[in-house]
Amino acid sequence: MPAVPARTDASQLKGVERAAVLLMAVGEDYAASILERMGPKDVQKVGEAMAGTMNITKEMINEVVAEFARTVGTKTSLGSGSEAYLRSVLTKALGEDKASGLLDRILIGRSSKGLEQLKWMEPRAIAEVIRMEHPQIVSIILSFLESDQAARVLELMPESMRSDILMRIASLEGIQPSALIELDLILEAQFEGASSSVRSSTVGGHKVAANILNFMDSAMESEIMEKMKEFDEELGTSIEELMFVFENLIDVDDRGLQTMMREVSTDSLVLALKGADDALKEKIFRNMSKRAAEMLRDDLEAKGPVRLSEVEEAQKEILAIARRMSDAGEISLGGSGGDEFI
């Protein structure tokens, strides 16, 4: 990760960089106790920021710590109002839909060990743990995972189960506390963990199902969608409309597209554009320098025929970059699904 350039004040630091500065300021013991309560992706993001945070002055550190102290002191009583404060902050930052689901997961994660432990496991290991479970149990478990992780797990499940599991995910609206407690205890027993209690949560739904499909292999994605539509055409269409596909990049604003393309390799872009329509190609050309656009056009012409699977893989790679940057607040995604579930 490139070093953070010199700054003159803390206002120039991004959110994850502020978190990194704060963790380095509080010392190893406190930082460790905070990190162990975070999810794997958040740990990675903050860890990368800590590794790359340089040129931070003492004044900037003091400003970050002081801001944190002011926020905690004025917004919550550290116990009695912390949940309400967290809900307010997340809603302002992410919107009502994303904030609601994320808050449920955070609050469940505070007391749940079995479900949370799955998030740190490799997809193949998770698939082995849940392979013999009822599809309804599998659907609940996959709804708690990050969408890309859930997609990898779903790909490893028996072909005959995939569409059934995804339909159950899309149909989930709420989980009874007793069911979550039982599921968490079962998983903890498998991991030899201590029992714990969990609270109910709204998990799953059409958006979760669509997001999981976005991360799946294109052939599997098409196969699952076809089977879902055969069983329930209305449900399949609803999920399809929420999916963010490569052609939806045309709805990203020019500045966002330019930011995203700086993260994309030329080889991946050439392959991906072999399967793109002319309108998207032209938009990408317009957001490059004249020389870079000419070189890209030449590369496309010189590339010749390529396998469809290679094109789809390159498009998935670029979409993954777009989602990551959207989650980090660096770009705003358009398209039929918008940034409500990306």
What's a concise summary of this model?
This protein is an all-alpha fold and 342 residues long.
Indicate the multimeric state.
single chain
Number of helices, where a helix is a run of at least 4 consecutive DSSP H or I residues: 20
Contiguous runs where pLDDT drops below 50 for at least 5 residues: 1-7, 75-80, 193-201, 335-342
User: The CATH topology of the largest domain is what?
Assistant: Annexin V, domain 1
- The radius of gyration is 22 Å
What does this structure look like?
The chain has 20 helices and no strands. The chain is an all-alpha fold and 342 residues long. The protein folds into three domains: 66 residues, no CATH class; 131 residues, Flagellar motor switch protein FliG, alpha-alpha superhelical domain (Annexin V, domain 1, Orthogonal Bundle), CATH 1.10.220; 82 residues, Flagellar motor switch protein FliG, alpha-alpha superhelical domain (Annexin V, domain 1). The protein is flat. The relative contact order is 0.08. The N terminus and C terminus are likely disordered.
List the helices and strands and how they pair.
Elements: H1 15-26, H2 28-35, H3 40-52, H4 58-75, H5 82-94, H6 96-111, H7 114-118, H8 123-130, H9 135-144, H10 147-156, H11 159-171, H12 177-190, H13 206-214, H14 218-231, H15 233-242, H16 254-261, H17 266-273, H18 278-286, H19 290-303, H20 308-327
